[in-house]
């Protein structure tokens, strides 16, 4: 009689998912990993993906526990978590800062659409390979048409939105120069009305 035993693969357990602030030390513990056959375990940790510009390095990569400093935020991963893990079909880029088109391409799902509404006044690079690989459609718009205004008026007439919520301030003509100077920088202002 021949008895053959099959060695079962060990089970890796790195612990619970963690959400930490930028600059925090992240600790990984493999002490709940196991081998059903009672074999001796060895450990090899690695960072398989990192946010752009991250310089995080693992300490203790071959030990039961490893650690690293979360040196960069990952807005794409955070948005994906907030949406329940499903990439959106459409992403609106409304800011116009360098790097945000590439971030939107990373964020949108395969065959999704990125609507480019923010006006970036600086040169910006786009990873065309990522766009092609995901078959992303990039749609731009800088100006409004008559149909856009008609649709907006229809929505306002129906009472579907409260436009006064967008008004963040009212200034007179004397205060207008200072208001324009303030709007050159990022402020809390959304829409400022002029009351002559």
Task: Describe what you observe in this structure.
This protein is α/β, with parallel strands linked by helices. The protein has three domains: 1-73, Immunoglobulin-like; 75-140, NAD(P)-binding Rossmann-like Domain (Rossmann fold, 3-Layer(aba) Sandwich); 146-194, no CATH class. Helices cover 22% and strands 16% of the residues. The strands form three sheets. Strands 3-4-5 form a three-stranded parallel β-sheet, covered by helices on one side. Strands 1-2 form a two-stranded antiparallel sheet. A two-stranded parallel sheet has the order 6-7. β4 (113-116), α3 (128-134) and β5 (137-140) form a beta-alpha-beta unit. α1 runs parallel beside α2. The longest helix is centred in the C-terminal third of the chain and has 12 residues, at 146-157.
Brief sketch in words of this structure:
The chain is of the alpha/beta class. The protein has helices at residues 75-82, 100-107, 128-134, 146-157, 176-183, and strands spanning 25-29, 65-69, 90-93, 113-116, 137-140, 167-171, 191-194.
DSSP E strands, number: 7
- General shape: elongated
Contiguous helical run count:
5
Secondary structural class = alpha/beta
Low-confidence parts, pLDDT < 50 over ≥5 residues? none
Largest sheet: 3 strands, parallel
Mean pLDDT: 85
The helix content is: 10-25%
Give the secondary structure arrangement, pairings included.
Layout: E1 25-29, E2 65-69, H1 75-82, E3 90-93, H2 100-107, E4 113-116, H3 128-134, E5 137-140, H4 146-157, E6 167-171, H5 176-183, E7 191-194
Parallel strand pairs: 3-4, 4-5, 6-7
Antiparallel strand pairs: 1-2
